[in-house]
Amino acid sequence: MELLEAIMERRSVRVFKKQDLPEELVEKIIDSARRAPSAGNVQPWEFLVARQEATRQRLANAAFNQTYIKEAPVVIVVCADEKRAQQAYGDRGKNLYCIQDTAAAIQNILLTACSLGLGSCWVGAFREEAVKEVINAPEE
Ligand SMILES: Cc1cc2nc3c(=O)[nH]c(=O)nc-3n(C[C@H](O)[C@H](O)[C@H](O)COP(=O)(O)O)c2cc1C
Predict the structure, then answer these.
(1) 39, 47, 81, 90: which sits with the fewest CB atoms below 10 Å from its CB?
(2) What is the per-residue pLDDT across 80-99, written as a single tens digit (0 to 9) for each?
(3) 124 lines ligand 1 (CB under 6 A)
């Protein structure tokens, strides 16, 4: 699918087939995410891929029980590393750039998923601390 077509066709999908996603498709999606632009090319992101049902369930719970999250075969948790961004750009890196950078990466994820014929949805409503616990994230 051409980029413009993916941009025009993409929409949030919240119903998923009970079907595994081949690893190579997940890798393509993550690869497209890490090619997003980032301020000073700091790339202050980490991508965690949750496949296990129990983990997806916990992530759904952390996202105010948005149940469709558990139904997706793969959930990608996108993290912004504030510390890395701060080291490069101080408060602006921490408060702005690392959020913009990861947002650009997420948009790549959604568009690549669409171009591969996959549905996806950006999930922003979740309890930070609960997700941190699920993925065992360090404080930054
Ligand atoms: C920052 C952000 C957070 C979002 N959080 C959620 C969410 O928690 N749950 C959800 O179902 N959709 C969420 N969405 C998806 C939006 O609801 C959706 O993109 C919007 O309604 C436009 O629909 P479309 O994606 O089909 O064009 C989020 C989108 C963005 C950009």
Answers:
(1) 90
(2) 999 999 999 999 999 999 99
(3) yes
